[in-house]
Amino acid sequence: MFVVPAEPFPYELPPGRTALVVIDMQRDFVEPGGFGETLGNDVSLLAAIVPTVRALLDLFRAKGWPIIHTRESHSADLADCPPAKRNRGAPALRIGDEGPMGRILVRGEPGNDILAALAPLPGEIVLDKPGKGAFYATALGEILRLKGITHLVFAGVTTEVCVQTTMREANDRGYECLLVEDATESYFPEFKAATLAMIRAQGAIVGWTTDFNSLKQAIG
Ligand code: TIU
What CA–CA distance (Å, rounded) separates 111 from 80? Predict the structure, then answer.
């Protein structure tokens, strides 16, 4: 058992039962012209975490521990996209519309790819998800059960939307969850700060937070 310095108290990480979940590090959220920008966001903030997410991937790769990459995506016919999601608000382009990186948030389009710097390697799991949470309408629970995973380390975007939703889903399913603070980002710095605070409040009501170097030193 590794003991990782974390908030609100040290996180006990069992090798062999811990997986890394990297949420939605896709061009659609990080690059101009994708889904994130169509919603009115300044996407430039998100690129800053790419080197840390890469270092985290490399750390898990060096250990040979399981890695799961998620992609928020919809089928080309949008059959898995609720009209309530597509029609919400007044985005510049809607899900499925043609944008500069192909159809917005549609599986297989260039903009839906994971960033080249964080590309999954053979053997790593890539999970397409139609919702914010990675457990909703996916096989994630079964995948983790078959691998005997009980502990999840989280990274990715955005902190208060898909990352937090997935951590809450995981917490309710009994997983011990650790979020790497400098490997997650939001379009809204105040929402990131609030999410980190609410996750670890009340005695780790949702989970723990730590920084990459603390995790690396603890397990390296
Ligand atoms: N809009 C926003 O902050 N996020 C999303 O829509 N999806 C994810 O967080 N991946």
Answer: 18
pLDDT digits (tens, 9 = 90+) for 80-134: 999 999 999 999 999 999 999 999 999 999 999 999 999 999 999 999 999 999 9
Q: What is the spatial distance between Cα 183 and Cα 103, in angstroms, rounded to a whole number?
A: 27
Instruction: Judge contact between 209 and 181, C-beta under 8 A.
Output: yes
Q: Which residues of 17-27 are buried (b: 16+ CB within 10 A; e: fewer)?
A: bbbbbbbbbbb
Other Cβ atoms less than 10 A from the Cβ of 35: the count is 26
Query: How close is the Cα of 78 to the center of ligand 1, in Å?
Result: 18
The β-bridge relationship of strands 98-99 and 67-72 is unpaired
Question: Taking a C-beta distance cutoff of 8 angstroms, is the pair 143, 124 a contact?
Answer: no
Q: Give which of 26, 23, 4, 177 is closest to 108, Cα–Cα.
A: 26
* 127 Cα–ligand 1 center, Å: 16
- What's the whole-model pTM score? 0.98
Measured distance CA(189)–CA(185) in Å, rounded: 8
Is the distance from CB of 66 to CB of 175 less than 8 angstroms? no
- Ligand 1 touching residue 72 (CB < 6 A): yes
Distance 36 CA to ligand 1 centre (A): 7
Residue nearest atom 7 in ligand 1 by C-alpha distance: 162
